[in-house]
Amino acid sequence: MTALMRDFMREAPMQDATSLAAQVGDTQVGDDTASDEPAGDEPACDKSACDKSVGDEQAGDLAQPSPLDPVLSSPVLSSPVLSSGGYALDLIQRQVRRLGKLQGEVLADRDPEPLHQLRVSLRRLRTALTQFGPALVLPESVTDRRIAAVARRTGLCRDLDVLQLRLQQQLLPRLPGHEQQALEGPMKRLARDRSQAFDTLKEALHSSRYLKLLARLHKWQQRPRYTPLGQLPLAAWLYDWQAPFTAALFLHPGWTVEDPTAEALHDLRKRIKAARYALEHLEDWCEPALKAWIQELRQAQELLGELHDLQILSHTLAGSGNTLKSHRLPVLRSELEGQQAEHWLRWRELVQRLQQDSHRRAIHRQLLELGR
Questions:
Q1: Which of 87, 186, 291, 322 shows the greatest Cβ crowding within 10 Å of its Cβ?
Q2: What is the C-alpha separation between 258 and 102, in angstroms, rounded?
Q3: CB 250 within 8 A of CB 289
Q4: 198 within 8 A of 157, measured Cβ to Cβ
Q5: Which of 49, 35, 254, 45 is closest to 162 using CA atoms?
Q6: How far apart are alpha carbons 162 and 171 in whole angstroms?
Q7: Alpha-carbon radius of gyration of the chain
Q8: Residue 133 CA: distances (Å) to CA of 47, 103, 230
Q9: Nearest Cα residue to 94 out of 291, 280, 233
Q10: Distances from the Cα of 344 to the Cαs of 73, 158, 276, 318, 335, in angstroms?
């Protein structure tokens, strides 16, 4: 982004991403033939900071009606002529509209929740585009990689928000005075890191790459194109649209690891999240038992998220002048270890229930019955 564009963005009144994207679309997008820029155009990002997903599955992430979402009516859902492509179009429109509505609130930075919701919408948009990709003829420049590049920047900023909140609201009130004072330095460093991450996020949300992406999606929504598969009735293909996300889910090695800090758990969490999002897209056709399983997946995702949050927080503090040495901060160390033990126990209990033969077979039957 040029210095001139930065100055303009700072002085210009807040606009939502939809209107900004429309402007970009009118002047820069052209005929949707641009290809992806090389990966080297993306600023480098520390893997541990970019890949982690700290605290991103709170209550607002559950798929529920929202004032920002158009709600599909029951007659439409039950219509035998509803095509896979038409249904995917609605899912994409919901998230693009949410992204536009949330843009101004995120940039105002008065409340961390809009940033969380923006991050969730980017993930749901990515899932919809991947899940129903075989049904859609999209512009070449609308790629998962482009959306992921913005999502990484929202992720880093959100992760720092969660670390700060966990320290301020959950841990500091439980610590003696001298341990609270010892954390003043790390808290200041977290605040500086968060400020820098937010500056990077603002650039990403105002970047021409992101705005062009939204503009091309907006243009495609006005005249959507579907593959022959996308023109077929959705009801007959419900099982197939979720199968790539749930197949072999329980074969992942993360279910059987015995170390609460194992990297396999973080990868499993991402797999569970993708399966959950894909199933929630089809939840209107799910029987109660399958809806209950979706909630179990959400619970599994949250527990793994808590374990990952604690691991990242411990590493962050350990890198702040050996803050976590037991002889300096024994109460803080005990709190972190106690929370880890509690969440690990709950995780193992949930795994035992989810992996029962009878439970897995019941879920398999429910998935096969989708749409019948």
A1: 87
A2: 40
A3: no
A4: yes
A5: 49
A6: 12
A7: 22
A8: 27, 26, 9
A9: 280
A10: 41, 24, 21, 21, 14
Q: What is the dihedral of CA 337, 339, 340, 343, to 10 degrees?
A: 160
Write the single-letter amino acid at 50: C
Which pLDDT tens digits describe the chain residue by residue (372 residues)? 333 233 323 333 334 444 444 444 433 333 333 333 333 333 333 433 334 434 444 334 433 333 333 334 343 454 557 999 999 999 999 999 999 999 999 999 999 999 999 999 999 999 999 999 999 999 988 988 889 989 988 988 999 999 999 999 999 999 999 999 989 888 999 999 999 999 999 999 999 989 999 999 999 999 999 999 999 999 999 999 999 999 999 999 999 999 999 999 999 999 999 999 999 999 999 999 999 999 999 999 999 999 999 999 988 887 665 555 555 789 999 999 999 999 999 999 999 999 999 999 999 999 999 977
Tokens of 303: 């527990």
Cα separation of 205 and 107, whole Å? 9
CA–CA distance from 332 to each of 186, 191, 306, 335, 354 (Å)? 13, 20, 17, 5, 33
For the chain, strand residue ranges (E) read none
Cβ–Cβ < 8 Å for 36, 146: yes
278 contacts 241 by C-beta, under 8 angstroms:
yes
In angstroms, the CA 300 to CA 348 distance is 10
Q: Measured between alpha carbons, how far is residue 110 from residues 105, 107, 115, 195 in Å?
A: 7, 8, 10, 13
Q: How far is CA 340 from CA 311, 333, 345, in A?
A: 8, 11, 9
Which residues are CB-contacts of 337 (< 8 A; sequence separation ≥ 6)? none
Q: Is 103 exposed, middle or buried (0-12, 13-18, 19+ CB in 10 A)?
A: buried
